[in-house]
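#onboarding

Welcome to the new folks! Below is a worked example of what a typical request in this channel looks like: someone posts a single protein sequence, and someone else replies with the predicted structure as tokens. Don't worry about understanding the tokens yet, we'll cover that in week two.

Example request:
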Amino acid sequence: MIIQKELPGVSEFVIIRITKIMPHGAYCRLIEYNSDAYLPISEVSSGWIKNIHEFIKEGQQDVAKVIFVDAEKKSVDISLKKATGKNKKDKSTEYSLEKRAEGIFNKALEASGAQARKQEIIGDVAKKESTYNDLINDIFEGKDPLSGFKDTAFKDSLYLLVSKAIKPKIYTVAYNVELTTTDTKAGISAIKEAFSKVEGAGIEVQYLGAPRYRLVATDSSYPKAEDRIKRANEILSKYNSIEFSMKSSKTQA
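Example response:
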């Protein structure tokens, strides 16, 4: 997050580092908040725990779920057992992306000579975006989240760094097609014409050996690549002399 909150919210997943283990629980550092939390032994793992040291170690970094917050006392309780494998994976990915985005932000400050105005710039950016990752993603997608931003040198440096640092992810969708025709006179011409239009829609046609073909579509998102295949289906469906069936072959990112 661009402006760091003092405490997390209940049910939030957080990155922790275990700092001190006690007989009935452990004290942990909330890395994203620069504050502490308590991990009761009952929240370390499901089932009975005889020796807490068999389950956690000092210095261990993990993902936990916040189960209690007392804002007045600045007290936070967390749970390891309530964080599933998917929760941990998603949170770890989110944290890594945020740190990477923050690194790009800091490089832009350095490149534009704006380090002395860092806090002022952070305050201005936080009025438009809540996290560094949201900011970077919006720039990458061609949006202008810092439209009207007064520090144009920093803005230009940031936008340039984003364009260099992030490569677009390309999705590929492929379908196998079995295609035949009952029109011995005009059928072959119809097939050639249909595939010409399919290729014109940005879809690669691969010949696998009659009557089998493969249609391959690539785009910046899976849905967009799928839409290209749907367009191929629409084109082929317009030819009454052509009979065909399509089956997903391979999808990759």
